[in-house]
Known about the structure:
35% of the residues lie in helices and 20% in strands. By secondary structure, the chain is an alpha/beta fold. The protein has a 7-stranded mixed β-sheet with strand order 4-3-2-5-6-9-7, with helices on both faces. The protein has a two-stranded antiparallel sheet with strand order 1-8. It is elongated, with a radius of gyration of 20 Å.
Amino acid sequence: xxxxxAKKCFGQNFLINKHIQEKIVNLGNIEGQDVIEIGPGQGALxxxxxxxxxxxxCYEIDRDLHQKLTKEIKNKNVEIKLQDFLEAELPxxxxxxxxxxxxxxxxxxxxxxxxxxxxISKAVLMVQKExxxxxxxxxxxxxxxxxxxxxxxxxxxxxxxxVKANNFNPAPKVxxxxxxxxxxxxxxxxxxxxxxxxxxxFQYKRKTLINxxxxxxxxxxxxxxxxxxxxxxxxxxETLDLEVIKQLYKLLN
Length: 253
């Protein structure tokens, strides 16, 4: 493969450690499955997946990289699209998502996965270490928030391992982490209604739970719900774990 210079405008950092590349692919359990790859880059993961998957669809936004990959890869089970993953209409069938995703659009990508969670069986993603810690955070920690609760309501999230910056070219300023999200949960409550509730709950970090929800529910119903859960009336959302938040949602809706 020819050498390719990373472009800052696309937030490109190419993973060059072969062992880590193989670990990522193995975590996906991709054998015989339809797979979507976000940002194939120079094809490090792509080449490892071609012979294992049923179909591989890659979304690449860099015209030069897209041209390089379409020139090199002629396999019939691989489609390389010159398209922003965030703008793509994803298939209405089961698939696995793999990707070393640009850190500047990580949250947007994660919320797109949430939107399409019914069709995703699993996602294995390279993200900034700090984001991985937010996704897997425990209640009462500074990393815990809307993203934590939203993703863990939809799926089972796991920080698989840390990837040091020196495994990339060019090396980013921070370490990365591989996370896996298994989207196989039966949701207890309607997805978008619950996620809207979570968004309101964490709207202002410095405000109490009652003050964050007062425009949606009456003060009396909020006080009654908190009393039933034996929670202080000045409680803040970041102190409540997912199970308590689900109980609160049930009492208020």
